[in-house]
Amino acid sequence: MKRTQQGDRTWFLIHSWIGLKLSVLMSFVLITGTFAVISYEIDWLLNPEMRAATPVSEVASWGKVYESLQTEYPRATIASIGRQEDPWWAVEASVLTPWGELGRLWFDPDSGAFQGATGWVNVQRFFRTTHRHLMLPTQIGIPIVASLAFPLLLSLLAGFLVYKKFWRGFFRWPRFAKPVRIWSGDLHRLLGLWSSWFLLLIALTSVWYLVEVLGGNAPPFPEAAAPMARDSAVPQTLTGSRIDAMVADAQAALPGLSVRRIVFPQRPEGALLIQGDLSAVLVRPRANSVAYDPSTGSRLGAYRGEALGIHQRISEMADPLHFGYFGGLGTKILWFLLGFAMSALSITGCVIYSKRLVKHHGRRGATAAPA
Question: Among 288, 296, 332, 335, which residue has the least CB neighbours within 10 Å?
Fold first, then answer.
């Protein structure tokens, strides 16, 4: 019995020590990550340019968008043209201006009409870079953030070992009429139980990010199967009709492909890539891709998500699982709520510990007073 009690006390001290010593950094990472989940939607609310004038599920003509872009910004270098999967989003073009400034241009998905421009730095970039690497160089910031997965896993294990017969607490409502230490403890346990699977998921994907930054990156995607039929890149030869023809050919090459992005070559030997969603689950649009020679429009090769290796599939599923965008707005909202619960866990844990310290020192003071 004494050995069991000593073990419980040890795990309790581990759980409390991790929560206290890492509370500020852990809370900061959890809160920024929670808002990173819905940061695109926050930008959408703040910037009317990002909203589709005519909500449609598919872009009517990628070629019209390209022609509008060339009319509005003929000297801009185009990195990509893409769109979120929800019908209320405008088409986004990521460009580099002649004076070296990154920007975002927005177009109506139905008519292709230009709707406006926004800066590269926005709410989404702020929360993503802050959460991902604390705005430090990635080789320093990512290991710091990702390594928090290990104390998170240890704290999760310790919590279950300390909380005896935890399964009885899933529907035990916090006693809010009691003092703060009691109801905050009840809330801490309730949130911990319901978000435990989510905490495990976040920790495991964080471990994967650490593996990647330390050199365990997945192999690159397949190169274009056929050689280029030209000596140098001639992006000026691209036209809207040629882009629409390539999109139609890509959908014929990969039946059922929902085009989400067109990536433009940034070097003379580079191919134009048409990417999107298909049948593979938990992959990004780049997992389904068709390559073209932009000067001739000829297809160079194609691959789909199911053809990727295990290492590549693990790498692809990390982001959708970590940020919850694999199921559209519904899973994003769920991930936001669960992230909020994890943040509350960190905060209520500090409240519980501080209240215990106050009570402990109060008892010591009362004992010492008569002496």
Answer: 296
Q: Output the CA torsion sign for 308, 309, 312, 318.
A: positive
Per the structure block, which two tokens stand in for 68?
């509008």
Q: Report the alpha-carbon distance of residue 284 to residue 320 in Å, rounded.
A: 8
Predicted structure pTM score: 0.85
Q: What is the distance between the alpha carbons of residues 276 and 358, in angstroms, rounded to a whole number? A: 57
Question: Rounded CA gap, 350 and 356, in Å?
Answer: 10
Closest by Cα among 280, 301, 297 to 289: 301
Picking from 298, 264, 139, 161, the residue whose alpha carbon sits closest to that of residue 212 is 139
Cβ proximity of 156 and 199 under 8 Å: yes
- Comparing 318 with 172, which gets the higher pLDDT? 318
The encoded tokens of residue 176 equal 């809010």
Distance CA 22, CA 242 (A): 55
Contact at 8 Å (CB) between 60 and 109? yes
54: helix, strand or coil: coil
Distance CA 362, CA 39 (A): 44
Q: pLDDT value at position 370?
A: 46
Tell me how far apart the alpha carbons of residues 200 and 152 are, in angstroms, rounded to a whole number.
8
- Name which residue leads in pLDDT, 47 or 351: 47
CA 80/CA 93 separation, integer angstroms? 6
| pLDDT of res. 4 | 61
Q: What is the number of residues in the chain?
A: 371
State residue 306's pLDDT score. Answer: 93
Could you give the CA distance from residue 109 to residue 54 in angstroms, rounded to a whole number? 7
